[in-house]
Specification:
Elements (H helix, E strand, L loop, with lengths): L17 E2 L5 E3 L2 E2 L5 E5 L3 E3 L4 H21 L16
């Protein structure tokens, strides 16, 4: 899969899904969640999970990390971010 920066996202040939780290980042500023994500779990290793609970939990983690990525890479002060805030 081609990402927005002209590169490619990696596909997990063993579990299926887009290869992500434990923060559900597939590439710089690109996140995958739910059953689309093949993620690394420190206790269980690389895996892909298909459940509603995982979909919601991974979406929460990915969304929080996206907001933090925007803050970290923005040239504007945080108060100008149109209501974006971390979910924690």
């Amino acid at each position: 899969m081609r990402n927005g920066e002209g590169g490619f996202l990696e596909f997990d040939p063993h579990n299926g899904g887009i290869l992500c780290n434990s923060e559900f980042s597939a590439a710089s500023g690109i996140y995958a969640a739910g059953d689309d994500a093949s993620f690394f779990d420190v206790e269980l290793g690389r895996r892909r999970e298909r459940s509603d609970a995982h979909d919601m939990a991974s979406a929460y983690v990915a969304a929080n990390n996206m907001v933090e990525f925007v803050f970290a890479h923005s040239q504007r002060p945080p108060e100008e971010h149109a209501g974006l805030q971390t979910l924690r």
